[in-house]
Amino acid sequence: MKRIKINRDICISCLTCVVACSVSHDGEDPRNRVVISSDSKNSPIFCRHCDLPECAFTCMTGAMHKNNQTSYVDYDKNHCASCYMCIMACPYGVLKEDSLTQKQIMKCDMCQSHPSRMPQCVERCPMQAITLEEVG
């Protein structure tokens, strides 16, 4: 499985990853963001597509679920009850409410619908601080 990795030492907080995410999703809210960590480092945060995803375990409708083929945690907005249990359960604070609809969750989908099938945050990072690497 491939996962997004971040080298915080070379991230310059240019927000290109955030803009690339928004553009690749037709101007919707980005599914990632950059925060300043407790040790004053720039810290882009993304869905980690956990092996044991708390967001999927707490989802009462199955809208948030682990995809056995890709190993990504997928989100199906058509089955979402907007209870926000997934947001509360995420230990990394990555998930958020869609500010436009206030009925859906904004979650990284690894840009699976983009023609390149490559996460745009990775493809567009000018510092190459964000990479896609094979794990486990």
Description:
It is a single chain. The protein is an alpha+beta fold and 136 residues long. It contains four helices and eight strands, in the order E-H-E-E-H-E-E-H-E-E-H-E. The chain has helices at 16-24, 54-58, 85-89, 120-124, and strands spanning 2-6, 33-36, 42-45, 64-66, 73-75, 96-97, 105-106, 130-134. It has a two-stranded antiparallel sheet with strand order 1-8. A hairpin with a 5-residue loop joins strand 2 (33-36) and strand 3 (42-45). The N and C termini lie close together (7 Å).
Task: Record keyword descriptors for this entry.
136 residues; alpha+beta; two-stranded antiparallel sheet
Helix fraction bin: 10-25%
Number of helices: 4
The overall average pLDDT, rounded, is 90
Q: Give the uncertain stretches in residue-range form.
A: none
Shape field: globular
Q: What structural category characterises the helix and strand content?
A: alpha+beta
Number of strands: 8
Q: Whole-number radius of gyration?
A: 14 Å
Q: What amount of the residues lies in strands?
A: 15-25%
Placed side by side, the strands forming the largest sheet appear as 1-8
Please outline the major beta sheet: 2 strands, antiparallel
The succession of helices and strands, N to C, reads: EHEEHEEHEEHE
Distance between the termini: 7 Å
